[in-house]
Amino acid sequence: MTLTYLGFHVLFVLPVVALLLWRRPALPRRRLRVARAGLVLMGTVAFAYTTPWDNALIERGVWFYGDGRVAARVWLAPVGEYLFFVLQTVIVGLWLYRVDFDPTPTAGDTARLPRAVGAAALLVLGAAGGWFVVAGPERLFYLGAILAWACPVIALQWAVGGAFLLRRPRPWLLGIAVPSLYLWAVDRVAIGVGVWTIADATSTGVTLFGLPVEEAVFFVVTCTLVVYGLILLEWVVVRFTGTSEDGTVDDRTDIAADD
Questions:
Q1: What residue intervals traverse the membrane (predicted)?
Q2: Taking the mean position of all CA atoms in its chain, how far away is CA 227?
Q3: What is the per-residue pLDDT for 222?
């Protein structure tokens, strides 16, 4: 039986979304509102920011799809690809809230040195990626496109809240690592059965457990964008509203319940 892109979602993506919704955490009402807004915001930004980049890489031939694997396309990308932008965001966000994090600001959260150093390092990576795309060897094109696309945004996130993130690394490390590992595994399956193929010409040829290293990097940076975005959104809200982590309302509800 041929696995299609939409079939891939049915087998490997939607069940995870359903499981995370079933095991959704209880949150104070005020945190719940911020979490919902954050998921909607991150999903919207992921869709808008990834769409032109994704279609440009498809046009360049960085990856392509197997015969009969795509039901419909919008622009050059399959419908399943657009679904992936949003569904990955939902998976990462729900997992992060399952891990949980404390957004309460503390002294030193706005220290300039760690924010400046981290942001500068990420901008250097982004610039290196830009060079790979414009003037580097063709085999570095895909890796460069990922770095040039993602690193400036992560640099901005780090410039805002890098010192806070450094003080409490466990939640975001777990929030990034677990979804990344799962997405590596299912991406490896999809490539193995021919749902999509990474072009040899624009890839380094380096693999990680059989997965092209570019794909591994892609899922790490996209999970990072979502995790940092959700954590820092709530941290900023708490900073500017003066609401502590337990809030002014101590009744608890779940992430999918009605107010």
A1: 6-22, 34-52, 72-96, 116-134, 140-160, 172-196, 216-238
A2: 7
A3: 98
